[in-house]
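seq:
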Amino acid sequence: MKLSFMALLCLGFSILSPSISIAQQNVILFDSIVKSELPNNAPGTVICLTKGNQILYKNTSGKANIELDIDMGLDHVFRLGSISKQFTACAILKLLEQGKLSLQDDIRKYIPEFPTKNKIISIEALLTHTAGIKNYTGLSSFTEELKRKDLTPTALINLFKDEPLEYEPGTNYKYSNSGYVLLGSIIEKITGQSYATYIEENIFKPLGMVHSYFDDPVKIIKGRVSGYSQRNGSYQNTNFLSMTLPYAAGSLASTPRDIQIWYKALSNGLLLKPETIKKAFTSFKLTNGRLTGYGYGWEIGNVQGTLSVKHVGVINGFYTYVAYLPEEQIAISIFRNSDSPVDLDLLGSKMLAISLGKPYTAHEVILTTKQLATYQGVYKLDNDTKYIIRLEDGYLMYYTLGGTKTRLIPIAKDQFTLGNSLIILDFIGKGRSKEANFIMKSTGISVNGYRENNEITLYNSIKLPLKLLQEYVGSYQFNPGPVFKVTLEHNKLYGQVGPDKKELVPFAKHKFFARDLDASLIFQIDSKNKIIGLNKIQNSEMKAHKL
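struct:
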């Protein structure tokens, strides 16, 4: 009787039931993806997925404050980190629309004390990370002691202004917080207001973002969560960071609901003209024609072919992610009050794909060893980075010289996913010319790969007697360098330095390759066949003697 009644109910509400069932099904899918893709390694996490004014999905877990045992909530305030850059960029674009600056202005027009370096550095180059200015957070002068000090924008700029340019402006892309520090200073010079005041008075207040702030540690901010770092398997309060240091590159704080207001305002033209926003949402093109994948304050990508703009924020105690689909007006915020690394773009993109009705699906297909071997080679990407594709023990591995290996999983003819990511290598030219090219498709812009060399040594594992494996066990001293320990567990050898442990796979007598790292070991023997040392080959060669 219950089934019959439900069937009649579905017939009676045939117009509404499809949307209800799809929404409910999506929530189940969202819950499943969050559980599988989001590691339980943060005190708390907030996820909010919206379309216009509608909340499609929300999820809160963990603690906003461990010490006070306060549960996480949707309206709690998080440090945004580098998500702040989109607000800085829009502040600059607002001044552009008001005729107070040009994106092609040399920055010395507003910051005359900045050295000329015999190159024009435009405001646009700062917005797009193409100015060549060194990232101050990577300098040796950016010490733990300095991070506790309050600095003026001028003092902050002094940290990096005399550093040489890394490349000629406009010829390359390299992410740099320094550019956004300079943009904050330009805002102050033009408006006569502090960066914090300008953002509050011209963005937060007019748009009704009442829970968004410049994160001043002295100010009472209702709902501000505590930030944590993980050390040796346990959590601690994150190290203090003066918020004058991230400044216009990363010092703002907000909530998922305010982020929803932000994107609604951008889509409705409440802050900037549609053509200005469209430009901000467009990848910058270098002088050589290569797209960088970054616009004005946003990374440019796609979700199943639909344009996405997004950014990650990593700052002491916090890991945040925001993505927006302008055509669909769908936004997702994933905020965590722990700075433990996690691939939030993978989670966010999968959830956005479901909201579009285009979930990511890929299933492994079986290829023979002979088929897999045809993809081996050294490939050069558009950005001149070289990658190696090699067949090892029946698996096709992808890595840079000396770098971490990731398996290429076949999902169709001439198509592979890079590990468990959403990156697909599509070998478009294979079989049609001597040069086998691929397109790397992902949630960012596509990248081309060109084969330079296909003469790659194929690695196949072999079995060695257990007695011989036992002879390799021991400690080996690099000089100079650390002690390298070789252990035997379940008839497999492992190499370890500190907590870093890698499986060692034999491919010849006394010769091993690392399972997930581009490194090989050759054990050395004396005239009595006794193991006396090893050579480690990883970019360069290092020798160690057995202790």
